[in-house]
Amino acid sequence: IPVKHQSPQVQSAFHRPPVGQKDTGNNNQQRGVALQNLLITQISDHQGAQKPIQNGTIHGYQQLSSNPTVPRSSDSYPSRTLSESNVINGKIRVKMQVIKANTTWHNADIPIIDHPSAFFVCNQDPRVAEQFSILSIEMNNYYNKPVNTSVPLKNPTIGDFCVARFSEDNLWYRARVVLIQEESILIVFIDYGNSESKPGNEIFPMQEILARLPAIAVACTLAESFPRNENFWTSQATQMFSLLVKNRIVEVQFQQGIGQQWPLHFVKVILDGQSIAQHPKLAPYLIPAQNEQIAMHFNDKFTSMEYILYNVAVGESDIYSDTLP
Where is this region: Disordered (predicted)? Predict the structure, then answer.
């Protein structure tokens, strides 16, 4: 399904395509009712500068078997128990994941791409998919009852978690408030990484039980890869990266982070047994660079709004830290 976009009003390192640019991936094959993957990292109670971001199609995933397979030992499945509080400062919070270095997701996909230094990765492990499928069914059953949508989210603020329908399939998804405008509220769908503007009366409070699992999409940066001869990634580089990975199952290897210098996860993406950075179609658009150099270049361009857009955890209370069964 093509992704529709909203023009950014504020320039940043992570500008998204303008209105009218289409996602060329065959996403129709990827639709599904179930929300099926794992994770983001996000900021709590953040009231910073505001950067409008794209409207986007929810990228569903193919229905997986109800008989999950046992993953490889190198896969990591963070989770948390219901005994942990989902309420912080009186508000429902969805916790985020910080993936440990040397973790490998052998079955992952990349549903949303801004450019090679900013994209979302979803773990396609069947056990995780099954839990999110159950969560999705519960959420849609609850919010499809008119009595449960009689009162919209009251006094919304930047960073609030909520629930809203996606306009193109009319299903309910978990979301977060990104920008409050005069006649609409921009929300990001936390389990996919894309967003949509909605009237305030179409955004509703999230049930605490729906916060028991973390946000799905993990915001990542292609490790050791810098745009060739450019301060920013060109549209051609982004399109080639997207062409290679969209609607493909890839292996994602999480690299050592560099602390506060860069909030996204550095990853290597393995496609058909080869690092995508060395793929002959993408290699002409990039040059090798240390991750520290990439962080130094982009960090001062990373606005406070991106901390919501890319779901960056800023404290221990934001982090989803247990393990799924």
Answer: 1-28, 63-82
